[in-house]
Write a structure and sequence with these properties.
The complex is a heterodimer.
Chain A: E1 23-24, H1 29-39, H2 51-72, H3 76-83, H4 86-119, H5 125-133, H6 140-148, H7 156-161, H8 170-196, H9 199-207, H10 212-241, H11 244-248, H12 254-264, H13 269-293, E2 299-300, H14 318-346, H15 353-387, H16 391-399, H17 402-405, H18 408-422, H19 430-455, H20 458-466, H21 471-500, H22 503-508, H23 516-524, H24 529-558
Antiparallel strand pairs in A: 1-2
Helix pairs in contact in A: 2-13, 2-16, 2-18, 4-5, 4-8, 4-10, 4-12, 5-24, 6-8, 6-14, 8-10, 9-10, 10-13, 10-19, 12-13, 14-24, 15-16, 15-19, 15-21, 15-24, 19-21, 20-21, 21-24, 23-24
Chain B: H1 2-19, E1 30-35, H2 39-53, E2 56-61, H3 64-74, E3 82-85, H4 88-96, E4 123-134, E5 160-162, H5 167-180, H6 182-194, E6 198-199, H7 203-211, E7 217-221, H8 222-231, E8 238-240, E9 251-258, H9 265-276, H10 278-288, H11 306-312, H12 324-334
Parallel strand pairs in B: 1-2, 1-3, 5-6, 5-7
Antiparallel strand pairs in B: 3-9, 4-7, 4-8, 4-9
Helix pairs in contact in B: 3-4, 5-6, 5-12
The chains are: A mainly alpha, B alpha/beta.
Chain lengths: 559, 337
Amino acid sequence: MFSRISKAPSPCCVAPGRCNTLTFVTKHPADAASLRHRRRSIAPVPPVLLIPPVLIAVSMAIPLFYLVLRTAEADISILLELVVRRRTAVLLGNTLALTGYVLVLSTAMAVPLAWLVVRTNVPGQRVITLLATMPLAIPGYVMAHALLSLGGTNGLIMTLFGFSVPRPGGLHGAAWALSLYAYPYVFLNARAALLSLDPGTEESARSLGYGSAQVFLRVVVPLIMPGLVAGWVIVALYTLGDFGAVALMRFDVFSYAIYTQYAAAFDRVYAAALALILLALTAGPLWLEAHLLHSRFVARVGSGVARRPRRTALGGWTVPALLFTGAVVLLSIGLPVLSLVYWMTLESPVPQLPRVLMFFRNSVAAALPAAALAVLLVLPVAYLRTRYPSRISRLAERSVYVGYAVPPLALALAMVFFSLRAVPWLYQTLVLLVFTYALNFLALAIGPVRSSLMLAPRRLEEAARSVGRGPLAAFFLTVLPVLRTGILASLVLVFVMAMKELPIAFLLAPTGFTTLSVAVFSRTSEGMLAAAAPYAAAIVLLSSMFVGLMLRYEGQELS
Amino acid sequence: MKKTLFGAILIAALFGTAGASGRPEGRTETITLYAGRGEGLVQPLIEQFEEETGISVRVRYGGTAELAVLIQEEGSRSPADLFWGQDGGALGALAVADLLRDLPQDIFAGVPDIYRSQRNNWVATSGRARVLAYDPRVVSSGDLPGSIFDLTDPRFRGRVAWAPTNGSFQAFVTAMRYVHGEDRTLAWLQGMLANDVQPYRNNTAIVEAIGAGEIAMGITNNYYLLRFLAADPAFPVRQTFFDAEDIGNLVNVAGAGILRTAPNPTGAERFVRFLLEQEAQRFFTREIYEYPVRDSVDMNPELVPYSELLRLSPAVDLDVLEDLEGTLTMLRRAGAL
């Protein structure tokens, strides 16, 4: 009911592109600082809120400590021989090229789609939103196989049209495979940012003489930039760390060197050294984010809800818009689903069903608590970051990304090392698996929660405090209800990722506890693609159900 | 409506959590197996062992390499009784790290020479031969190379696939170093690279690529194609051995070893013996297209007969496969990794 308080805009400065009656976009650290100062709460931070950030920071120190410890065992001359060679430079160059390519490609797919569903009258917005989010449910290897199955003399194009095209591969193949299942991270962020835009901003700019293009470039783009950057960071980190899809596309990247060291050499020492180099690489996107995102502070200062924006009538552009949408959807969902169906026609999935069901239960038993724990942990971090900004809260927020940036195999080995020494009774229990998943995917959970917190009107909390509620009570009464959509989105993002995860499940799942992703791997790696299909289909089916649930819930929340 | 739906999913998930406890209870004896073998391949065999012996097997499935690294990381704290991997190199790495215990001599009785190791702390459980898979649409049988050394010939330029990160491939290179010497092996690797050999992720990817007409031939293991053909009899790929005793026909193994720290070494030993019995051996050849390590077993008709395998394969002591480090160094020096 609080959210229905009518709007009372408070005027501020007038220069379009910088800020307007309702929205601040500050570019200069000084502005941000003064803003922070003004927004700083008088009340001290409730100590209980500090527990999760401290727990996160300490936990994130485990993999770092482990990697440094293992690297310290290295013989420096062998290490140099491994690292200082031309191939390392080639791999680094390839990695950077791939990351840039994926960012451009996924943005080119995501932003137009987000614009279409939020700001135009394109038909079927709900359906398009669902379809543009669903690729999250597709495991990378399924996407790569699906793209590969397009070309070749026995490929889909040959079957349908009677001529064969080369199979995709190399930089282009790898970039398309990654972009097609990672672009929803950009889409969701761009869409959320567009939804939260106040049309008043653009109207002010227009009234000051800006044309449509200028409004878009100088008002809309800067305003949705924080959302885009948040999506880009996730996509960039994902690209840096991915090995599976990229290897199937036969493109050599840096994560390949790490994988080779672990998997071909059975070696933990030099792999750790390489993992530290990869970590240093991931500092790039994080630095970028820190500078693009946090020097801007975006929030409506008026209370209440923004008006719904005016939608652009597409008119003659409707058909091209739908064609574009259709092409993206066909490649990102149609193709992988089709190839799974094809494999299942080769070998009946029916005899496998009891096992599919059993592994399905295992997967859910790991992924669902992991999602819940991740959200529980990031909630206070995001809350501190937005309500009590300080060096410590920024540090806690940064540390969230460490878990995502450490190669999963290294993270899992660090947890093996740590748990066997410190808490042996937790080793190979579901608890440790869930905890490690949560650490790994905190970075996915923090985005939606943080965005919705930024939009949650602070005055409601202050009102609750002013009638004598404690800070926690005020939070539960006023902020949490506003966060429901963000929390659900965070849950789903972590859940679908954990469903697909492989190396951590290998090493940390309880013995005898096989998940769907392990079942898929153990078949595809043995040349049994048809037998793997039902398990992969179960991952896709369940994950897309959750994605659908998220959007449905959000839709009802908005209407 | 939405709440009901969400609630239903939550309840289903919680029910799932409660029911998902992986371990069969109520049996007295248990062994813990780290299996680097596909769950889809060997689960029926493990269930049969449980039925026959009453020993309950807790299996951790994973990649052979990942599990070998895991066992090293666990060290003396490992809960595992035994490791069953599908690459002699991984078993060798654990043996070198002194993590495996000696097996009783009689376990090795009746294992043919091609599967022999001087170490007695792990035993081969099945064999897998290296072969040349090819696309008969573009390679006629007269054009096939006689020796793997022929693949550096200009007529094969850009037409051959390999999987340099794959354990079987690396084991083969190790064997080549042992049989033909470091210089000749390095020259072969460099010759292959100069001849534009195409690297692939793994053997599955090689066989798929040949089927798609992307590449004419590839060096791989014998069973991948047979599994593709089982799912799709029209799959357009064939495979062949090189000339007799060519190093390209190396027979690598899947094998098992018992950990020094095994909580239940006797149960583990029963499992190892079970893998070597007729029934399990028949399973390996019939169901998953591997070669048995007992010559008395009926072979899968899709495979070459046992006598033929013994004639074709080079005699290489499996212990030489332990020197993986030297192979990796060479692969890096040649620029293959």
